Amino acid sequence: MKDLKILIVEDERILAEDLKETLLELGYNVAGNVGSGEEAVELASKTEIDLALMDIKLEGEMDGVSTAEALRDRFDIPVIYLTAFSDDALLQKAKKTEPFGYVIKPYRASEIKSVIEMALFKIEVERKRKESYKNLASEAQDRANKLVKMDTTLKTLMEYRENEKNEVIRNVAKNLNDRVIPHFDTIRMRWPNKELNNLLDALTTTLREIAKPSENTLSDSINLTPMECRVVDLIRQGRTSKEISSLLGITVRGVTFHRGNIRKKLGIQNKKINLKASLSR
């Protein structure tokens, strides 16, 4: 990690040169050695810098804290403060810039090395954290894109299946209207019988309902049983309970029972609402 580039920001030039020599002896690269915050910001805009050693009390318009803040916010450069002061107010202000450490003047080479190595470790941890977050964000985006594609594919498939289903319904409707229902008139003419005609009328109505290419039938929407469906068809024709019982081969009491279940499923039980009118909506 000693190949990382370190910037020195120290307005006491003798101390700055001494620090530079110390860093070089320790095997670190010195990216720059400047005496003001303005120079530090200018150099950071032109040079790759991985870490700054910052005098907390700089002369000029930009002190060490404001310079550290600028380096962090604009260039994402972490800072280690160099200070001979123990001013609590100043240290509290410095903490807001999230420094990676402090070195108290006068310092020894071993102290410099320890603080820098700890800072570089933190930098590496932070780099890996950001890289991991970036990878997770990228993976999440990839999965989101795949979900969008899957959703689009599923919608296309469902639309295809719906079109296919409607085509089948249209074909069934055409066959019923063209090939089945017309024969009922022939049967009526050849075998005139009131009971048979009533049955044929019921069948005709039922088949015409089937022939309607409706996407949502009443039987689907309120979950009618097969017998309830037959009762519903006959009620729609205006048949009485006695006629329905005769056509379906059940008792009038049975018809009344089915009527009650149908009203319950429609949500109109115990209400003065005509069942035929409700079924015709």
Task: Describe the protein in words.
The protein is α/β, with parallel strands linked by helices and 281 residues long. It has 2 domains: 5-107, Response regulator (Rossmann fold), CATH 3.40.50; 182-279, Orthogonal Bundle (Arc Repressor Mutant, subunit A). Helix content is 66%, strand content 9%. The protein contains 11 helices and 5 strands, in the order E-H-E-H-E-H-E-H-E-H-H-H-H-H-H-H. The relative contact order is 0.06. The model has no long low-confidence stretch (mean pLDDT 83). Residues 217-281 form the HTH luxR-type domain.
Keywords:
alpha/beta, Rossmann fold, 5 strands, 281 residues, rod-shaped, single chain
Task: Report a brief summary of the structure.
GO terms for molecular function: DNA binding. By secondary structure, this protein is α/β, with parallel strands linked by helices.
Question: What is the element layout, followed by pairings?
Answer:
Layout: E1 5-9, H1 13-25, E2 29-34, H2 37-44, E3 51-55, H3 64-75, E4 79-83, H4 88-95, E5 101-104, H5 109-190, H6 194-211, H7 218-222, H8 226-236, H9 241-248, H10 252-266, H11 275-279
Parallel strand pairs: 1-2, 1-3, 3-4, 4-5
Helix pairs in contact: 2-3, 5-6, 8-10, 9-10
